[in-house]
Please model this.
Amino acid sequence: MSIKSRVLAIAGAAALTTGIALAGTAQAETVIELTQTGCQFVESEGVDHGYTPKTADDCKEINAESGEDRAAKAVTLRLKPGKHIFRVTNENVPYELGFWLRGDGLISRATLPSVSGGGLTQGVTKDYVVDLEPGEYLYSCPLNPTLDYKLVVEG
Model:
């Protein structure tokens, strides 16, 4: 990882824990760096648990055992409305991953903006661009699978 990437990742972690958005341009475009390792987003949980799944089913078992406790400790990402780039990296998972951001709940899922995609093979980073509106969201990777992490857009 380059020094610039490390700085952005550290700043992204600070944004996750403090609710401070990262300003990428004068239009308040924000880059949120998220790292996927086995069964989790590292920045969302504040630690890499070191899980080494070989398949998505391994994550289902891990999440059944530890998911409730991990979800209770996960950081809620807080952002302002506007254009955001979610830069997601598959750090060490040996199968293809993706990213899915959507409204939290049936009505919010139908009315709030969403973004999703796959193709995150091991070592690959992709950007997912979305113009967020105020509301409550979830983000996850159904292919890894991870927990449903919370995102709140307000302001």
User: Anything to note?
Assistant: Confidence is low (pLDDT under 50) at residues 1-26. The first helix runs from residue 3 to 18.
